[in-house]
């Protein structure tokens, strides 16, 4: 926000130069009001604020906003007041003429809490008629929050001129908030105000309605009914919000588990180093971003697009290497595989710790992934949304790959009946290596996405490994759809338990539920049937 | 009956092992207490505590070997039973602090005063009595293992699935014990112990006694394990390990056998934890970390799965290596070595140290036997000629 404000200020200062040329300066009520800032007296300052704000002078906004930021300099000897810009240039507050430098005797005009409120209110009304839609909207919202009685007139004035629909609504709400607290407003006005706030229906509206103090009986009654209506709509929104958080967590779980669904679910290899593949993907992103930062800073927004295939290749290649050098000797000995891959995970973690250091590495968000937007009463951040989209895309591509490509066909054949597949001329050991590489590569891709929301440290993988296994086991081994359903079920269940039980207890409850669930269905939600079960 | 069971269960290796443990259990405390400090043969107190720790780990490894080596149950959550036993002992030791704590509250341990507890939580009742705490050391892990095993074995959760849910169990406990309002000291755990049975835990005599006691527990645990695995019950366990379905079809109630041995193993792990805590002086939630349990499994794998002696040996060897390498300039490479150990042992030494040695011993014995019989045969052939 401050950058935005100073940018706006700069354009304003520029236009001031033009005005300064066009209009000869003249002494009048505005100049007298400005001079009061130099008196170093709180009540004079307050008068000055009110006078400047209501003057309609173009300089009013820069003066008041400078006052708010402590950039309004006053020289008590010469009664001169200056506005210093964020860029170091200064103008004379009374005339708008540029000055070379502010005299040393000038000091910033002091404010106290009461004055700060009137500054806020003054700024609010000043910006209500700004040509910029965003500024007007913001101003209307700030009036809604402060609901100072003095703002009623400027709001009414702005409302009469306003053409933009959303600003008009915001102004109407601001007006309602003021009227609700205005002691001499008529009952009809207040009832209208309650209705407006009820239509707004969010936490802030409810806070205003509950805190409005003594009111006529009819208003109190209307407010009570408005509050209960707002409460029920808020409850709906909080459910929607939990569902969204749950979907978001579920997408993260799915992303982390999807590679495991291949290596563990399809191949039956208990890969405890799976989390480290995720970590390698995240570090690949870090390296890509470092190279881009130092060599090609313009490409930063594309860093993730470059990192995704690279992470897939790096993690996939390491996966193939692991399969060829360790895992292929351990087929049919699942518990030994578990121990060997656990050892491998220690080695990989320590290797990354030696190369990149034990501390968190900074991975930035590209511009299209930062920020958020509002959907009704909930805020959706772009990075979470993109991760959900990305996860579903990866899932769809993987599914299509297994279904429609020759390699996918071979993979399924080897999984279902190794000896038969070998008799048909499929090079089973090559397919094993590629399948493991695929699972690891997908874990690497997951690392790229998770680097956007989690700390990139050597322990990154460890925090996902237990959750990933839970997802795969819960969903049913050997079934990608089971993994999808499992991940979203666990994610949503977790987020709905969290407000009730707290974050940690919620997680414990989920773990206990999974343990109990496995008793009931030892092979997960979607169990494979037939011969594959015993294999 | 019992002497017969014991003699039958002891082969030469086991006897040597027991004698070595007994000798260590007697000699180290004696040398520590009787010889003057600075003498070449005197074992410093810090080493007594360190080796006491190893012996406790050896008991834990024994417990894991009993279920993994003889019944095929790979538990990745045995650290949880170890830690629960440790917490039971830690609670007793906390209650013994009494008014000597920082806040001087006669009933509440320091952390409870700090967290504004008004009275002792009900599950802390009774832990001021040693016999009760000692009972809980067995009962709490045993009960958890019984309930967990009853659910898991009855619904035939086996192999990898069992490993993963045991891991989930210890992870859930880790999260729970990290919470301050759970009543076990949260993150910091239980520490700052003063007395055990009226004796100062820091005193040399107490430490030596605890060490001897740990060795005794190791011997008793070993004898129990040997008795189990060499009995008829043990034969069924091995049958379950090698062909679970077939054993079931032969009419054995597989889940009862598994449940029994799992519970016994958990109790042993609890005892190991209870002996560990006063010697180390602290118990905190990190003992529940899934990594610890997996590390304990690797001790067994290194020493030799299904040999008992190997499990204890593996625990001591790996932990000695850990102490040795994490203290010097090689510290940053310890995880590389531990990781490589996991991989190499599973790839190249699947039977572990003792298992490989046994196989080699049997093989060379067979060779010698074969050599002597063939020599005898040759004699037999030549003899008639001589007679002619």
UniProtKB/TrEMBL annotation, chain A:
Keywords from UniProt, A to Z, are:
Amino-acid transport, Cell membrane, Membrane, Signal, Transmembrane, Transmembrane helix, Transport
Q: Which GO terms describe its cellular component?
A: plasma membrane
Superkingdom is Bacteria
Q: Which InterPro entries match?
A: ABC_transp_permease (IPR001851), ABC_UrtB_bac (IPR017779), BCAA_transport_permease (IPR052157)
Cellular compartment(s): Cell membrane
Keyword Cell inner membrane belongs to the record:
no
Q: From which organism does this entry originate? A: Bradyrhizobium stylosanthis
Q: Which GO terms describe its biological process?
A: amino acid transport
Q: Where are the transmembrane segments?
A: 243-270, 302-322, 334-352, 385-406, 427-449, 469-493, 500-518
Question: What protein name is recorded for this chain?
Answer: Amino acid/amide ABC transporter membrane protein 1 (HAAT family)
Cell wall biogenesis/degradation listed as a keyword: no
NCBIfam families cross-referenced by the UniProt entry: urea_trans_UrtB
Membrane topology (UniProt): Multi-pass membrane protein
Q: Which Pfam families match?
A: BPD_transp_2 (PF02653)
Family listed: Belongs to the binding-protein-dependent transport system permease family. LivHM subfamily.
Q: Which residues are the signal sequence here?
A: 1-27
List the molecular function annotations (GO) for this entry: transmembrane transporter activity
């Amino acid at each position: 926000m401050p950058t935005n404000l100073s940018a706006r200020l700069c354009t304003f200062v520029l236009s001031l130069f033009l005005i300064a040329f066009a209009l000869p300066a003249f002494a009048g009520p505005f100049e007298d009001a400005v001079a009061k800032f130099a008196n170093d007296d709180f009540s004079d300052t307050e008068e000055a604020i009110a006078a400047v704000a209501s003057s309609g002078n173009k300089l009013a906004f820069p003066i008041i906003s400078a006052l708010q930021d402590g950039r309004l300099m006053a020289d008590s000897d010469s009664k001169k007041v200056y506005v210093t810009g964020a860029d170091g240039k200064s103008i004379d507050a009374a005339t708008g003429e540029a000055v070379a430098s502010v005299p040393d005797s000038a000091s910033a005009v002091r404010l106290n809490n009461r004055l700060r409120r009137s500054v806020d209110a003054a700024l609010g009304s000043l910006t209500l008629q700004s040509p910029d839609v965003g500024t007007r909207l913001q101003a209307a919202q700030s009036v809604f929050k402060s609901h100072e009685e003095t703002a009623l007139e400027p709001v009414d004035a702005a409302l009469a001129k306003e053409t933009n629909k959303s600003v008009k609504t915001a102004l109407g709400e601001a007006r309602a908030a003021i009227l609700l607290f205005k002691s001499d407003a008529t009952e009809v006005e207040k009832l209208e105000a309650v209705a407006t706030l009820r239509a707004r229906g969010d936490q802030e509206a409810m806070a205003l309605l509950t805190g409005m103090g003594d009111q006529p009986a009819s208003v109190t009654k209307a407010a009570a009914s408005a509050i209960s209506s707002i409460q029920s709509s808020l409850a709906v929104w909080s459910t929607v919000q939990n569902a969204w958080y749950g979907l978001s967590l579920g997408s993260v779980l799915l992303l982390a588990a999807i590679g495991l669904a291949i290596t563990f679910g399809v191949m039956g290899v208990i890969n405890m180093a799976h989390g480290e593949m995720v970590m390698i993907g995240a570090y690949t992103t870090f390296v890509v971003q470092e190279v881009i930062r130092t060599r090609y800073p313009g490409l930063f927004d594309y860093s993730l697009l470059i990192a995704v295939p690279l992470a897939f290749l790096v993690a996939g290649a390491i996966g193939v290497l692991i399969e060829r050098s360790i895992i292929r000797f351990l087929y049919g000995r699942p518990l030994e595989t578990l121990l060997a891959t656990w050892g491998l995970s220690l080695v990989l973690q320590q290797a990354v710790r030696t190369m990149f250091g034990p501390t968190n590495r900074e991975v930035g968000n590209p511009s299209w992934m930062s920020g958020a937007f509002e959907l009704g009463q909930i805020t959706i951040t772009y990075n979470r949304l993109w991760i959900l989209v990305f996860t579903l895309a990866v899932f769809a591509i993987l599914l299509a790959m297994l279904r429609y490509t020759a390699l996918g066909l071979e993979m399924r054949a080897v999984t279902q009946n190794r000896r038969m597949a070998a008799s048909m001329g499929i090079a089973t050991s090559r397919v094993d290596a590629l399948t493991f590489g695929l699972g690891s590569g997908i874990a690497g891709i997951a690392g790229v996405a998770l680097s956007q929301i989690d700390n990139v440290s050597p322990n990154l993988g460890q925090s996902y490994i237990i959750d990933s296994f839970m997802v795969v086991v819960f969903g049913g081994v050997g079934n990608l759809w089971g993994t999808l359903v499992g991940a979203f079920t666990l994610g949503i269940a977790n987020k709905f338990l969290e407000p009730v039980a707290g974050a940690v207890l919620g997680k414990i409850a989920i773990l206990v539920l999974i343990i109990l669930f496995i008793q009931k269905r030892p092979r997960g939600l979607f169990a494979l049937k037939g011969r594959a079960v015993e294999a | 009956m019992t002497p017969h069971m014991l003699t039958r269960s002891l082969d030469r290796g086991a006897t040597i092992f027991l004698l070595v443990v007994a000798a260590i259990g007697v000699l180290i405390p004696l040398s520590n207490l009787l010889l003057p400090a600075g003498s070449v043969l005197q074992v410093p107190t810090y080493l007594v505590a360190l080796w006491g720790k190893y012996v406790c780990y050896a008991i834990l490894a024994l417990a894991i070997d009993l279920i993994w080596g003889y019944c095929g149950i790979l538990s990745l959550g045995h650290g949880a039973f170890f830690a629960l036993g440790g917490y039971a002992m830690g609670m007793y030791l906390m209650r013994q602090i009494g008014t000597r704590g920082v806040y001087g509250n006669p009933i509440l341990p320091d952390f409870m005063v700090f967290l504004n507890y008004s009275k002792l939580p009900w599950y802390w009742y009774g832990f001021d009595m040693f016999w009760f705490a000692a009972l809980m050391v067995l009962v709490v892990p045993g009960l958890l293992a019984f309930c967990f095993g009853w659910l898991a074995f009855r619904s035939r959760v086996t192999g990898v699935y069992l490993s993963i849910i045991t891991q989930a169990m210890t992870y859930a406990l880790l999260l729970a014990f990290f919470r301050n309002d759970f009543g076990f000291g949260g993150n910091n755990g239980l520490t700052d112990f003063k007395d055990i049975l009226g004796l100062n835990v820091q005193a040399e005599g107490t430490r030596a006694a605890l060490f001897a006691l740990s060795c005794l527990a190791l011997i008793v645990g070993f004898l129990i394990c040997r008795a189990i695995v060499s009995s008829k019950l043990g034969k069924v366990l091995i049958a379950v390990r090698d062909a679970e379905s077939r054993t079931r079809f032969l009419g054995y109630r597989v889940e009862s056998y598994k449940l029994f041995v799992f519970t016994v193993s958990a109790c042993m792990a609890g005892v190991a934890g209870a002996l560990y805590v006063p010697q180390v002086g602290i118990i905190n939630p990190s003992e529940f970390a899934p990594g610890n349990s997996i590390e304990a499994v690797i001790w067994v794998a290194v020493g030799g799965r299904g040999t008992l002696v190997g499990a204890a040996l593996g625990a001591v060897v790996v932990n000695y290596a850990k102490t040795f390498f994490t203290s010097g300039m090689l510290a940053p490479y310890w995880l590389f070595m531990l990781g490589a150990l996991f991989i190499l042992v599973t790839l190249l030494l699947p039977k572990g140290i003792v298992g490989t040695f046994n196989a080699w011993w049997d093989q060379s014995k067979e060779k010698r036997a074969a050599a002597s019989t063939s020599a005898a045969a040759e004699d037999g052939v030549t003899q008639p000629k001589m007679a002619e």
